[in-house]
Amino acid sequence: MNEPKPEFASFAKQMQAGFLDWMTYLCVYIPGALLLLNVHMYDLFFPLLHFKVYLAVVIIPSILTVVWWIQMRSTPGKLLRNLQILRLDGKPMTNTDVTIRFICMGFSTLMFGMGFLPAFSNKHQSLHDLLAGTAVFHVKPKAKHGKALRKDTRSTPDTSDEILIQ
Q1: Rg (CA), the chain
Q2: Are 43 and 62 within 8 A, CB to CB?
Q3: What would the pLDDT profile of 33-61 be if each residue is shown by its tens digit?
Q4: Which helix (H) or strand (E) holds 137?
Q5: Which of 1, 9, 17, 140 satisfies CB 3.0 to 4.6 Å to 77 for a cystine?
Q6: How many CB atoms lie within 10 A of CB 137?
Q7: From CA 77, how far away is CA 83, in angstroms rounded?
Q8: Neighbours of 66 (CB within 10 A)
Q9: What is the pTM assigned to this prediction?
């Protein structure tokens, strides 16, 4: 079967997914990493003095993001909005594409976060997508396991064609 080509995700959907990703980052990744590394509250007041804080706030979430990109072609927010990060030709990203996209996210961050806005092209690409040759696409959700529901048409003894005469 020939699958339809995915379409570029809209600005609004990407912003919604970005908001969900930030909520995941702030409410799941950071607290989970802080608990995992046993970081105390007083360590947070002097984060530059403690490598564990840097590890919890930057390194672990970055690794989790790259793992999401490789495994799911998405992030949690994009997954909830049926969005995927693909190459411009619609094919999945290679490890090289993932690496380039991740490095280019640094440029988006250095621009005070403005590089994350999906407004740099008519394809609604962020700066790092534009530099990496990727884009965010809206994909149709697939049916689970390819099973289609069908009506049971078998007849039972109670619904047979027999006519009861009294």
Answers
A1: 24
A2: no
A3: 888 888 777 766 776 667 877 788 888 88
A4: strand 134-138
A5: 17
A6: 22
A7: 8
A8: 15
A9: 0.74
Residue with the two structure tokens 């407004």? 119
Q: What is the DSSP string of 33-99?
A: HHHHTT--GGGGGSGGG-HHHHIIIIIHHHHHHHHHHHHHSS-HHHHHTTEEEEETTSPBPPHHHHH
Give strand pairing partners of 137.
8, 84
| pLDDT the model gives residue 35 | 86
Q: What's the rounded Cα separation, in Å, for the pair 77 and 142?
A: 18
Q: Which two tokens stand for residue 111?
A: 């621009």
Segment (H or E) for 136: strand 134-138
- Give just the sign of the alpha carbon dihedral 78, 133, 102, 69: positive
DSSP string, 146-159: G----------GGG
Q: Which amino acid would we find at residue 162?
A: E
Specify the residue for token string 């049916």.
143
Q: Look at residue 81 and tell me whether its pLDDT is greater than 80.
A: yes
